Protein 1
Amino acid sequence: QVHLVESGGGSVQAGGSLRLSCTASGVLFNIAALGWYRQAPGNEREQVATIDRHGNTNYADSVKGRFTLARDNLKNTILLQMNNLKPDDTAVYYCATGGVGAFSQPNYWGQGTQVTVSS
């Protein structure tokens, strides 16, 4: 059974930083693709960043240059470093698995962690 646990959300002022982590179990982590999505009130869930089994990353245009996604295969964890946060980054952030190898589409989700950025 796949289980994803997110942590690291919180409240910061604009310009601040947060680091989200997602620890996975029940998957072959070394070959899994994973990603982060977010959903703000009234909005659809959107993709933020993905990472394939080799550590190659993709980012939404809105976060490029500010967010960095990395993976630690020894800890079955992915880490999303978020810098220069803006109020528009306020959302619930969800970790997701995305298949094997390259990220295809999300199939398993974590419970989400709230990020709130105040101006």
Note: The chain is about 0% helix and 55% strand.
Protein 2
Amino acid sequence: QVQLVESGGGWVQPGGSLRLSCAASGSIFSITALGWYRQAPGKQRELVAAHISDGSTNYAASVKGRFTISRDNAKNTVYLQMNSLKPEDTAVYYCNDIELVLGGMDNWGKGTLVTVSS
């Protein structure tokens, strides 16, 4: 199983931007659907962005129009560009194989913390 390591989080003021990266230990070419999830304090983990191998993308309503997911199979990396950040975007962000998660897999990386505050 490919291991995924998230990075790029930090503190940003409301309205700011961050780009998260998710580097894989092996090839992501064969992974059909890759997703960025987030978990805010006291809340359940939620899927915020998905990238399908056919190039299509899907977003949670709360981030649509502000976040962009992309993947670079040559670099085995998935990105999440986050613009117009809001305090409610504060969370630990994780990436994962969506099909494995839906199948009950509960193996997560350490994530990367994003804090949006003034």
Note: The mean pLDDT is 95.
Protein 3
Amino acid sequence: EVQLVESGGGLVQPGGSLKLSCAASGFTFSYYAMGWFRQAPGREREFVAATSRLAHNTYYADSVKGRFTISRDNLKNTLYLQMSNLKPEDTASYYCSADQYNERRPGKYWGQGTQVTVSS
């Protein structure tokens, strides 16, 4: 059974940083592209970042480019999202995703999400 479990969310002040983690199990992690999406209340889920199987390619939404960094550890079966210079508009539930074939917008499997709130 595929499982994706996010952690690391919380409350942070504007300009602050957070690092999200996604622990994966139930599939061969290095065979899958991985991604982060987010969803704010009343809005549709949107793409944040993605990484190819061996992290040779990374993709970012324009709104987070230069502030967020996606990375993965294929030995630990873990995906990360380092978020810096956070803004109130980054407030959302953040979801980890996996997809064997779509490395730009991986969306086959999903985690349950972790809440990030940016507020003073």
Note: The longest strand covers residues 18-25.
Protein 4
Amino acid sequence: QVQLVESGGGLVQAGGSLRLSCAASGISSRIFSISPVGWYRQAPGKQRELVATASSGGAADYADSVKGRFTLSRDNGQSTFFLQMNSLKPEDTAVYYCTGRFLLGDYWGKGTLVTVSS
């Protein structure tokens, strides 16, 4: 059974940084390495929105609101991917979800809360 588990959320002051991790289990590292992955977020009272996505070998795409501040990276050998978030703003406060498309199925983590105080 494929599972994604996020970690790294928390409370940070505006201008600070956090690094989210998403560890995949139940699939081989080879499958992980050729699969697209991404991060979404959902702020209170708002719809879930795309933050960043990356194909297996291509560059990541980012929402305009996070370009230049967030970076998606992956460690295929560890079946883990990351979201480095710098220069955080209060409007980045949300539950962050990781997702991956593995073997034609879409999988989601349960989310990790990021709170940015002003």
Note: Residues 29-33 form the longest helix (5 residues).
